[in-house]
Amino acid sequence: MELSILLLLAVLTGLLLLLARGHPKAQRHLPPGPRPLPFLGNLLQMDRNGLLKSFLKLREKYGDVFTVYLGPRPVVMLCGTEALREALVDHAEDFAGRGPIAVVEQVFQGYGVVFANGERWKTLRRFSLATMRDFGMGKRSVEERIQEEAQCLVQELRKSKGALLDPTFFFHAITANIICSIVFGERFAYKDPAFLRLLDMFFQSFTLISSFSSQVFELFSNFLKYFPGTHRQVYKNLQEVNAFIGRNVEKHRETLDPSAPRDLIDTYLLRMDKEKSNPNTEFHHRNLILTSLSLFFAGTETTSTTLRYGFLLMLKYPHITEKVHKEIDQVIGSHRPPTLDDRAKMPYTDAVIHEIQRFGDLLPIGVPRMVTRDTHFRGYIIPKGTEVFPILSSALHDPNYFEKPDDFNPDHFLDAKGALKKSEAFIPFSLGKRICLGEGIARTELFLFFTTVLQNFSVATSVAPEDIDLTPQESGVGKLPPKYEIRFVPR
């Protein structure tokens, strides 16, 4: 559908050129970039392989800071470790706004902790961080929850008896259950029908959001929203998830004990009740539903997709898997579960996990930012409200920091003595005021789930390592690994 529309737009180009009258005065001081066509913007400079490749190609000509017109609107691109750090850290307040993602804009509309701005965002972020901390984040209790979930996964994988299986469901289930325990105060059985449906909606939606058609929609959403397409399926899916969350909120209302809040929903309901006389409160039903959706979506998809990439890479590079097994055997052994304290004694495994995140490059163009005021940056003026894309991929593949950025190599994170080496360019959780609020919990999950599985299993597949294809299934807002099957063989 989108391709036929693009052809129609191309036919109209000649007529639109007659309407060209240059840029508004406020946009003349923007960073350089290719000259846009009216309405179509820089469509003719877009690579058919997607937005990321288009932006990286334009970077070669215009440098690390440039402007691209996505349809009629200008978006400033930030590339490279230095430019990203200068903007998001040194000018943190200026770049603290959140830009929309067109394909989910109809769902969020500026509500919920991820897509809110201004005081709403500050209020919801403070609440979310404090509540997640109270219910485990940053405490040993969240480590215990992850350890328990990891053992449930081991039991489930043992049932497969080394048969080939698609690991997608399992990695979704374990990460979703950690968020469920914080938001809902409970975990779900892997065969619970409602839980299975929830996971399917998440996976399907993340795949659609990262698809080529969603990237086309990003360029012309004001026009394409009136036609059938990916955006309508995403909206339908996420509304179903919102209904699931809403039903749980009602159950919480009926059983709420003000003296003993059980989870994030209880804590939010108590705050709603406390502020019910405040007409300007941000603690209302809509923000509760969309904050819960934000935490679910971010907390489930990012970590589970990273784990999927990780185990595909372990199949591709068995010599690396062998070294991880050796370090697990030396530090942990086979008679106790891994703990977070083990991480400091396991630099090789930690480096492998870092490299999985770097190579996996899960959110290559970053989640859009927006400048909160007229901003002077590197000699340019970026007007208040202008969208900014922090191209995280350009840092994670920065040749100034990673010797062979296109290769999977844990040595990128090891010094000459074999100790873990930090890198300024390692920013998978982004930077600055909008850094992922679940970074701590995600890092804990990745270490404990990864080491627990490899403590108990060897991994194998029916494809020779040299024939394993790492080409992403989708690469848009998110980057998804290709589908694959894996054997978990008890050690």
TrEMBL record:
Which cell locations does it reside in? Endoplasmic reticulum membrane; Microsome membrane
- Give me the residues that bind heme, please: C436
Instruction: Output the GO biological process annotations, alphabetical, semicolon-separated.
Output: epoxygenase P450 pathway; xenobiotic metabolic process
Q: Which Gene3D superfamilies match?
A: Cytochrome P450
Gene Ontology MF terms in the entry: arachidonate epoxygenase activity; heme binding; iron ion binding; oxidoreductase activity, acting on paired donors, with incorporation or reduction of molecular oxygen, reduced flavin or flavoprotein as one donor, and incorporation of one atom of oxygen
Give the matching Pfam families.
p450
In terms of InterPro entries, this protein maps to:
Cyt_P450 (IPR001128), Cyt_P450_CS (IPR017972), Cyt_P450_E_grp-I (IPR002401), Cyt_P450_E_grp-I_CYP2B-like (IPR008068), Cyt_P450_sf (IPR036396), Cytochrome_P450_fam2 (IPR050182)
| SUPFAM superfamilies referenced in this protein's UniProt entry, alphabetically | Cytochrome P450 (SSF48264)
- Write out the catalysed reaction: an organic molecule + reduced [NADPH--hemoprotein reductase] + O2 = an alcohol + oxidized [NADPH--hemoprotein reductase] + H2O + H(+)
- Provide one Gene Ontology cellular component: endoplasmic reticulum membrane
Q: What is its EC number?
A: 1.14.14.1
Tell me the leader sequence span: 1-22
First-listed, main subcellular location of the protein, grouped into a coarse class: endoplasmic reticulum
> How does the protein's chain sit in the membrane according to the entry?
Peripheral membrane protein
Q: Which keywords does the record carry?
A: Endoplasmic reticulum, Heme, Iron, Membrane, Metal-binding, Microsome, Monooxygenase, Oxidoreductase, Signal
Q: Which cofactor does it need?
A: heme
Family named by the database record? Belongs to the cytochrome P450 family.
| Known function | Cytochromes P450 are a group of heme-thiolate monooxygenases. In liver microsomes, this enzyme is involved in an NADPH-dependent electron transport pathway. It oxidizes a variety of structurally unrelated compounds, including steroids, fatty acids, and xenobiotics.
Q: This protein is called what?
A: Cytochrome P450
**Lineage of this protein's species?**
Eukaryota, Metazoa, Chordata, Craniata, Vertebrata
State the encoding gene: LOC102833839
